[in-house]
Amino acid sequence: MTLPFVAIRPGRSFSLRYRVRTLLVVATLAVLAFAVAVVSLGTGDVVLSPGEVLAALVGQGSTIAELVVLDLRLPRVLLALAIGAALGLSGAIFQALTRNPLGSPDIIGFTTGAFTGVLVVTVFIGNAYFLVAAGALVGCLATTLTVYLLAYRRGVQGFRLIIVGIAISAILTSINQWFIIKVDLQAAYAATIWGQGSLNGLDWTQVPPVLGLLALLVTLLAIGGPRLQLLEMGDEIATGLGVQVERARLTYLALGVALIAVATAAAGPIAFVALASPQLARRLTGSAGIALTPAAAMGALLLIVSDWVAQHVFAPIQLPVGVVTVTVGGAYFAWMLARAARTQ
């Protein structure tokens, strides 16, 4: 049975058309992410019930509950949800542009380039937070420009972009290892932890810039309309439907890079969320192509769950969240291979 569509028209010049199944999947993922967020806010040295957490969120809790929830734990939870959504969106953009499930920023090498930028800043300038964030942004953008220029041959084809990206990623990985060997032990330890992807130590100072930048990027994506879905159909079809292919591709490439750069600057290169989120969301929605909203919701859920595991499963040791996402990603790859073997 084909599910009906729901048309959403917030303005005359902008409209969205969603299948009911897609809306149900997004709503379910959002509810699950909120539920995990409430559990995460109530878990730790000071244990709070879900009721106490909700009361603290609306300003009706005890002094201790509001201090723990609002001042100490809420920034990390908000950033986990926002960064997870950004990673899911970025992965969806690149997989749609390359028309390949491996077209993810962590596979293509953009997050590796961000790590290189951080190491360069750490070695030659310092390791203050804003310096590290700036290094991540510059490294990610420089890597993207390099991959794009090397992959450009009268346009950029998805498979060529992936191959060039994997090659650049391998080169940058070697450079990163050389930097880690050269820096002093304390700086090498800090860089290695950051390179795993970690939400440890994030507070309210990171929340406004991250949420503000992500809100701007999501708005720009919404303004772009359905051109990404048209690009996923192929250059010839997109051109026939009036899309300026290279211009649109470059625009979405810039937005995808900006999303991954913001996420990486805040928390380091968190692996596999951008890779797995669009594909898992696609399977749940049953859509023919990559959809942005389900990918964002799935990314938020994956990262908030992974962060809870990183904080509490091995307590009192707190793992970098990237260690958990790598484990989940390995299981996801094993499942994909087993499924592919059964279908052959």
From TrEMBL:
The chain crosses the membrane at residues 20-41, 77-95, 107-125, 130-152, 158-179, 210-230, 250-276, 288-305, 317-338. It comes from the Bacteria. One of its GO terms (cellular component) is plasma membrane. It is found in: Cell membrane. SUPFAM superfamilies: ABC transporter involved in vitamin B12 uptake, BtuC (SSF81345). Keywords: Cell membrane, Membrane, Transmembrane, Transmembrane helix, Transport. It is a multi-pass membrane protein. CDD domains: TM_ABC_iron-siderophores_like. GO terms for biological process: siderophore-iron import into cell. GO terms for molecular function: transmembrane transporter activity. It holds the Pfam family FecCD. Belongs to the binding-protein-dependent transport system permease family. FecCD subfamily. PANTHER family: FERRIC ENTEROBACTIN TRANSPORT SYSTEM PERMEASE PROTEIN (PTHR30472), FERRIC ENTEROBACTIN TRANSPORT SYSTEM PERMEASE PROTEIN FEPG (PTHR30472:SF24). This is Iron complex transport system permease protein. It comes from Cryptosporangium aurantiacum.
